[in-house]
Amino acid sequence: MLDKIEKDHYYHIFNRGINSTIIFATEDNMTYFLKLVKKHLTDKVDIIAYCLMNNHFHFIVKIIEDNNKATQAFSNLFNAYAKAFNKQQNRTGTLFERPYKRIRIDNESYLKNLILYVHRNPENHNLIKNFQDYRFSSFNAYLKNKESIISKTKDYILSMFEDIDNFKHAHHTYQSGFENLADLNSRH
């Protein structure tokens, strides 16, 4: 059963393409998706972390708006992106698995582990040798003094890791001990 989205709670939001199909064919698709995230989500949720992969994505968010408005915002995001992607790729039909997955994050330890897991995802999937070099995760946004979709929560999250040096160290020394995301989520 999926967790119900509730205001003032943290969630891991993730999904993949239907039948594990590609949902981001190009980097431009990923850039466009993040623009839609900013348009549809940033006044309804605080974005803690994200990672976009070619056939799936992960977001860690805190809901800051009424449940129904936040749920509708996710729906609007996914529908807007699917419509544009289908048009660009000359395809029809559902793009994402339904319903999108959401798991409530109920403690700080789980939140910290999930942030590490999400940021290291491209390396874990052998997409890139070093997760730090991946452009479509929020890891580098934490290291730069530049406005981004995680700006509202950046200082709070860095303080959970004590400071930026410990944030980087935790990422470099992270060994999840989990075979996959299901293992991580089942132990929260």
UniProtKB/TrEMBL annotation:
The molecular function terms in GO held by this entry are: DNA binding; transposase activity
Q: Which Gene3D superfamilies match?
A: Transposase IS200-like
Start and end residues of each Transposase IS200-like domain: 6-121
Q: Which InterPro entries does the UniProt record give?
A: Transposase_17, Transposase_17_sf
Q: Which GO terms describe its biological process?
A: DNA transposition
> Domain of life here?
Bacteria
Entries under Pfam families matching the protein: Y1_Tnp
Kindly give the PANTHER family that the UniProt entry links to this protein. Answer: TRANSPOSASE IS200-LIKE DOMAIN-CONTAINING PROTEIN, TRANSPOSASE, Y1_TNP DOMAIN-CONTAINING
* UniProt-recorded name of the protein: Transposase
